[in-house]
Amino acid sequence: MKDLKVYLDTSIINFLTADDSPDYRRDTELFFETIIVPNKVIPYISRVVIEEINDTKETEKKEELLNILKKYPNIKMLVAEDDNVEEIAFLAETYMENGVIPRKKIADAFYIAYSTIFEMDILLSWNFKHLANVKKEQKISIINKINGYNYPFRMANPLEVLNDE
């Protein structure tokens, strides 16, 4: 069986430092210890994750988040080339135009677009409202198919990947 390609949104990185959510933090740490570190999946992020981290107002928190990415060198960066930059922007806009993702959550639309264009198997998130959500996943799959993207991907949270072990 091939290794799953998993896109990690910013919430996954954030919950490694979430003192106010000990259960999610523990589950995220367990996911990293048992799935990411032993390379049971191929983890990816994009510039959108880096931009969100860099937008963190608190300097210490921003450094802590950036250091997490350094701590896990097996997390790969998806790099959009000239030909797929426009595709990614088009798809992100399409998700927002169709009301699947609100305009104020543009990063979420870009996570989905990157996951679609780069054929990720799973978009991993703790965002149950916009990403790790079955109804949203169905609507996104329809939009993707209408636009010629047929690679199936899931939007899930770390527990779903942990419990699949």
Keywords:
5 strands; 53% helix; single chain; 165 residues; 5-stranded parallel sheet; alpha/beta
Question: What would your notes on this structure say?
Answer:
This protein has 165 residues and is of the alpha/beta class. The chain is 53% helix and 12% strand. The chain has helices at residues 10-14, 22-36, 47-54, 59-71, 82-97, 106-117, 134-146, 158-162; strands at residues 4-8, 41-46, 76-78, 122-124, 154-156. The chain has a 5-stranded parallel beta sheet with strand order 3-2-1-4-5. The longest helix is centred in the middle third of the chain and has 16 residues, at 82-97. It is globular. The mean pLDDT is 91.
Nearest-integer average pLDDT: 91
Radius of gyration: 15 Å
Q: Runs with pLDDT <50, length 5+?
A: none
Percent helix, as a range, is 40-55%
Number of strand segments: 5
What does the main sheet amount to?
5 strands, parallel
Shape: globular
Query: What kind of assembly state do the chains in view correspond to?
Result: single chain
Broad structural category: alpha/beta
Portion of residues in beta strands equals 5-15%
How many helices? 8
Going across the major beta sheet, what is the strand order? 3-2-1-4-5
Q: N-to-C terminal Cα separation, in Å?
A: 13 Å
Order of helices and strands: EHHEHHEHHEHEH
